[in-house]
Structures are given as structure tokens and as C-alpha cells.
Amino acid sequence: MTTTGFDYTVTRTLEAPVAQVWAAWTRADQYGQWAHAEEVALDVRPGGAWSSVMVIPGGARVPLSGRYTEVVENKRLVIGMDVPGREELALMTVDLDADGDHTRITLYQTLDSAEERDQSEFGSNMLLDGLTAYLAAA
């Protein structure tokens, strides 16, 4: 795990209970709906693999894969992503904190360059925008 580098943190309060937010992140049928992903496979347990094909604006399809390194139900997911040309996983942590009927979600990563950080932060905000809209329609 990288301990020095370029960090970002994104925090939002979602108008949904923590169990609903957890299900959205850990159930393939739900994840695909809000994350603009197809062919989603999630084995949500430490060491479990995940994969999906992200459909980005404009229609380009980007295959992604990795494995979970930490899973604490309704609290934390540490998601590792395979990065071409890199031996270690790129880790993203998702922390959930219950606040009554709302959930505070925090995503954070440490990356190797400012450019990677900026791209990942942009992507995380897009993910949270999709999650927010999905939960509002549920």
C-alpha cells in the first residue's frame, strides 16, 4: 500500500440508511445501475475478486477488475483495482457512518501523481453523483 503520494478525500451525506448504501456498493444488480457499469461481478469478502465494464460518457467501455482487501459490513470497503503496468493494487477506501436515516460516505485514495489523483477524484465524484441519484429514486 502506498503511504506517500497524492491524496484526495471526498465526503458526502446521503439521504439513505447505511444498510441501503452498503447494498448499493455490494450487490452487483444495484452497483451496475448507479455506477454505469455492465457485466458486474462482486465477491465482497477480503481477497474476493470484482470486475465490471464501465460505460463512460460517449459510450466508451472500460473493463476494470481487482479485489477487496478489507470488508467490514455496513462500515468499510477497501477496494483494490488492477492497474496495467503496476504490481500492487490501487486502493480506494469507502467508509460509511450512520447518522440516523442518513449515511456519511467518505472515499479516499493515495496515488502516485497529481494527474492520477485528479482523475481518480473526478471519477469518485461521478460515482457519488450516480449513487446519490440512484438512492433518491429508490
UniProtKB/TrEMBL annotation:
<comment type="similarity">
    <text>Belongs to the AHA1 family.</text>
</comment>
<dbReference type="InterPro" id="IPR013538">
    <property type="entry name" value="ASHA1/2-like_C"/>
</dbReference>
<feature type="domain" description="Activator of Hsp90 ATPase homologue 1/2-like C-terminal">
    <location>
        <begin position="16"/>
        <end position="135"/>
    </location>
</feature>
<dbReference type="InterPro" id="IPR023393">
    <property type="entry name" value="START-like_dom_sf"/>
</dbReference>
<protein>
    <submittedName>
        <fullName>ATPase</fullName>
    </submittedName>
</protein>
<dbReference type="Pfam" id="PF08327">
    <property type="entry name" value="AHSA1"/>
</dbReference>
